[in-house]
Amino acid sequence: MNVTCDSCKTRLTIPDNKVPQDRDSIFKCPKCKEKIKVPAVKPENQNFDFYFEGKLNTLALICVGDNDLQKKVYFEVHNIGFNVNAVSTSKEALKKLEYYIYPLIILDEDFDQNKGVKRIIEKLNTIDMSLRRQICLVLLSKQLNTNDNMSALHASVNSVIHVDDMAHFTDLLHKTLTDHKNFYTVFNASLKLTGQV
User: Which partner from 8, 109, 134, 149 sits 20 to 30 angstroms from 62, CA to CA?
Assistant: First the structure.
């Protein structure tokens, strides 16, 4: 972490492992001996704030048929700050998609006897692109490798997580959400600069 002394303007580099994550800390400037307040280091993947029409939106839709897998996904997604709706059929999922914008949708490739994936992706492909860009669609797969970007593109999803990697699901989901948010932040800024928004 880089900090600057307010008194003498000396720039210091403090190793992150020396800065407590749960509270602010105070260090003495080695040059002028004044106190330097250093804010707590917050994990970059704490919570994800998604907005729709200026309002915070923390909804997630879980489309996973297997009960054990659904419970695991539900628990992990809820723990990172989302309000989770879990459905067991594509009919339920499509009905929810008619009324709500979900910044996160997790879809199991076996959902609703393999019919669900096609129906949900078809639905998402028909909505306005400005809305679709706000949705991070994650496919849980037994066939495709985790973070296989070409397979994700081919499947019309934002990311793929192999079910064998569920032990690392939270970390993988954090990375996916961070990448998605960062990409579209840059993308939307570029559209504004070119006058397309």
Answer: 149
